[in-house]
């Protein structure tokens, strides 16, 4: 625990120790990945610790009021981060250091930009960020962590962290942007002729394939739907020599805990009974893990 006047900062190993409404009130971006339901669901349904993510969130209280928080994890590997710092880890350890454990503020398995510093509206943001970073330093020392990483923050929050003497890491990502396209042909018009023809051909083949596409949202997604989806999800990992991160129980939980968030798209073949199925690996227990993210 860190004290600064009436402000107290705690490190907690589970979001069940934080009131969900108080946590969600800290962020008004509407980002579902920052919600208490999403992050606590990962903890409850065994998605984190088997993959080396150990919750160690920071929460700041002014008296009994929650005024700031930082989703934070102690990690013994670099899986599920999508920043690929394996070379850093190798260089650090060849130089005689121990790169793991490290502290990471991120949304596990989710390379989506968003807030990481959750600050109550109207609060003194720079001051609270400073106190949170001081608490991070104490946690690093207490846990023999080599470093602290904040992954995929917004540009505004990157500036706040840079003001606290954190180094900015630059990387390359590919993003699709909707440049006010009114129709799909508007988008195709931005492409070279060869690419336009290829996409139109693929769309004609898809439309003539006899496949049905169904969109199912929120509570309408049944356990059966999630089971089928989870088979696809797992088979993708196994084919790429990876290990699935999110459990089937977590997906089922989303339908109840976040009914306005999940959207499942299934593509079915009516000649096969209208059922979507995923290929199963022959023996998933023998598939080795690899660096997938």
What this model shows, in words?
By secondary structure, this protein is of the alpha+beta class. The chain has helices spanning 20-24, 36-44, 86-94, 125-142, 155-162, 184-188, 193-207, 223-239, 248-257, and strands spanning 2-4, 7-12, 53-55, 57-62, 65-70, 73-75, 102-105, 118-119, 148-150, 212-217, 263-268. Strands 1-2-4-5-8 form a 5-stranded antiparallel sheet, with helices on one face. A 4-stranded mixed sheet has the order 3-6-7-9, covered by helices on one side. Helix 2 packs antiparallel against helix 9 (248-257). The model is unreliable at 277-293 (pLDDT under 50).
Straight-line N-to-C gap = 32 Å
Whole-angstrom Rg: 22 Å
Give the averaged pLDDT, no decimals. Answer: 89
SS elements, strand count:
11
Helix content: 25-40%
Q: Give the helix tally.
A: 9
Strand residues, percent: 15-25%
Strand order of the largest sheet: 1-2-4-5-8
| Uncertain runs | 277-293
For the biggest sheet, the summary is:
5 strands, antiparallel
Structural class given helices, strands, pairing? alpha+beta
Shape: globular
Pattern of helices and strands: EEHHEEEEHEEHEHHHEHHE
